[in-house]
Amino acid sequence: MLCFLLRSAASSSKTKPWKTSVTAISSLNYSSKVPFKPDPKKPTSVITSSSAPSAADTLFDEQERMRRLAADEKDPSLDVGPNGRPLFTSATSLSQFTRRDTCSYFKLTNEALNAVLPEGLPTGMVKEFEDSKRTALLVRQSFLDLRDNFRRVVDPTIWSSTGVKVRKQVVLDGPVSCGKSIALAMLVQWAREEGWLVFYVPRGKEWTQGGFFYKHPLTGLWDTPVQAENVLKDFLKYNESFLKQLPCQILDPIPLGEGAGVGWLKDADSLAISEGTTLYELVKTGIEQTHAAVAVVVRLRKELSLVKDIPVLFAIDQYNNWFTFSEYEEPVTIRSCRPIHARELTLVNAFRPMKHDDMMVGAFSHSTAVGKLRKDLPDVPVDARITFPRYSLDEAETVSHYYLRQRLINREVFSEENWKKIYFLSNGNGTEMRGLLPFMR
């Protein structure tokens, strides 16, 4: 049997079935014309690719579209939605929205958005503004439900006709591109317009990657002082006036850690907090002293839980990134490393839990490719997770008329049958609808 196998292997090796034969490129050319070989000494003419005119045409089309949109602004008769309804709501703030305003668009300005959301806008919102050439957002019933939930938390006397349970902690889940991040940003805008103190994190994934990190010998957690400094700077952008009026209620010393790239302090291991220190001074200390940045963020989380004069809301986007592994690794041997879970990071460990009495909302972002998480998340109430829907048929109809108004769709080919085809093809995915509607034929 062994001899038979050896003979078979030898015979098969002669045929060499897996060897790729080397064939000259010229032998595959059926043209009798000699292949052109450029001379490096002679200047060659620039060959214009087919994509160059296309790019120029695209730029011209965009400029022409902008010109026509500017002219359309003078014609209010174009602001018509489905069944002759107004395409834009007459409400001037998010707190004025009622059910009558659903399936209509709310006009915004860049100045107002940058003022109320200085931490940054969600990627989906920015893309929507860029493609539609207008800063306007769809008023959805799902957002009104979210807003009214927290409104009833602050004012329990507000009666709910639906009898929905009021939740202090909410996790926004749902399919990709269903508007979770935009709804969270709108909730933050509404809360700040109402005078709330909001701790808003538009990019939670940044807490789990980049910068300097080290394991604190006392806590056993991993400190990230660069991220801590950025968190404090973002928090100060909008809330500075609030923080100057709020005194520190915890006077325990702030433990110092290792600074970003500067090591440990030799003559001090803690920072004293004197009576009368405001939260603004506490935050400024964390920004100016890199050794105290991480501990100040942790202390700030505890201090905000003690604020009773004004409502406090924690709003975390990309919240699902805090339930998986970070991009940091701990060396185990010379040749191997252990991935560090997000819960092992000091900042995430302080802000991730939801089992408390504070108002908190976290939005999952499936565009970050974290993967599907289990339904019962650690440190999260069982009933906190709600599914955020994609566009309904009525919402998709309004969206289609809005993109028609913004000249993303050719009026000659626009019809109810065509936009419904795209709606069902995309399954109500807002990003896919916006990408497919211009190809309506």
TrEMBL record:
Coiled coil: none annotated. It comes from the Eukaryota. Its main location: mitochondrion. The keyword Ribosomal protein applies. Keywords: Mitochondrion, Ribonucleoprotein, Ribosomal protein, Transit peptide. It is found in: Mitochondrion. The keyword Heme does not apply. Residues 37-57 are annotated as: Disordered. GO terms for molecular function: structural constituent of ribosome. One of its GO terms (cellular component) is mitochondrial small ribosomal subunit. InterPro entries: Ribosomal_mS29. Belongs to the mitochondrion-specific ribosomal protein mS29 family. PANTHER family: MITOCHONDRIAL 28S RIBOSOMAL PROTEIN S29, SMALL RIBOSOMAL SUBUNIT PROTEIN MS29. This is Small ribosomal subunit protein mS29. The lineage of its organism: Eukaryota, Viridiplantae, Streptophyta, Embryophyta, Tracheophyta.
